Amino acid sequence: MAGTIREWDATAYQRVSVPHEEWARAVVDRLALQGGETVLDAGCGTGRLTRMLIERLPRGRVIGIDGSRAMVEKVGKILRPRDEARSGDLTKLELGDRVDAIGSSAVFHWILDHDALFSRMHACLKPGGRLAAQCGGAGNIDKLRQTSREVAAREPYADHLRGLAEPWNYAGAEETEGRLRDAGFEAVRCWLQPWEVVPPEPFEFLRVICLAPYLDPLPSELHDPFIRAVLAAEGEPLRLGYVRLNIDAQAPL
Question: Is the pLDDT of residue 176 over 50?
Fold first, then answer.
């Protein structure tokens, strides 16, 4: 999405991304669904949020969009006949019919152009439709990111990672509120929420989620040594200082 589309190990992602369960549940709760709405899952991933939406929409419909075909294939297995999942770029999304609500969990920080993103989300909503989302925010995993950059500067990794730009947009609450209002939203509220994560499978968690952008340019034989070097520098147990950017907004009536 917006230059950061990548394929994921969808099976491993579903297994190790345990914190995403609670994050997704909070998003669904904030939507306050009545059961008959059509809801867009913006960046559906392996379907954690999608599954919760299906449970809350016995008479409604879910549309899942994700940039990864592997993720879309996995989420497709939990859909009902009236639901839909397809791959696509959220910054260029055209739905046809507008939706009643949009939910998104752990996605928007992978999209660099938040102005384009929020403009498209606004265009996809019916008048009065709600957007509820959470993603990585300002300060997210700062310590791990610094450690990763230091390891990336060492040989034999430096030759492959020199000049690598991090693919994340960890925005602040105030700037996000401004972008949402510029996109046409009202009743805007954004806030940052610190959230420490101690993953039970630290090696796999880093491999599949946090360090994936560093591993992609590396030869496969350097993947495991790079992860082990980051883990050694971080110490045990691995404690990740997540910061979640929570987003609530509404399209005007």
Answer: yes
Mean pLDDT, range 215-227, rounded to an integer: 97
Task: Give the distance from CA 33 to its chain's centroid.
Answer: 21
Give pLDDT, residue 43. Answer: 95
Integer Cα distance of 153 and 8 in angstroms: 25
Domain assignment present for residue 100? The answer is yes
Hey, which residues does 237 pair with through a beta bridge?
none
Residues in the chain: 253
State the total domains in the chain.
1
Residue-number span of the structural domain to which 65 is assigned: 10-140+167-199+240-250
Residue 57: per-residue pLDDT: 98
Sheet holding 240-250, edge to edge: 84-87, 61-66, 38-42, 99-105, 125-136, 240-250, 186-197
The pTM of this model reads 0.91
Q: Is residue 150 part of a domain?
A: no
> What CATH number did the domain enclosing 21 receive?
3.40.50.150
Q: How many CB atoms lie within 10 A of CB 246?
A: 20
Query: Per-residue pLDDT for 142 more than 70?
Result: yes
Q: What is the pLDDT of residue 85?
A: 95
In this model, does residue 191 exceed pLDDT 80? yes
CA angle in degrees (0–180, nearest 5) for 45-47-51:
155
Instruction: State how far the alpha carbon of 38 is from the alpha carbons of 15, 82, 124, in Å.
Output: 28, 10, 11
Is 209 among the domain residues?
no
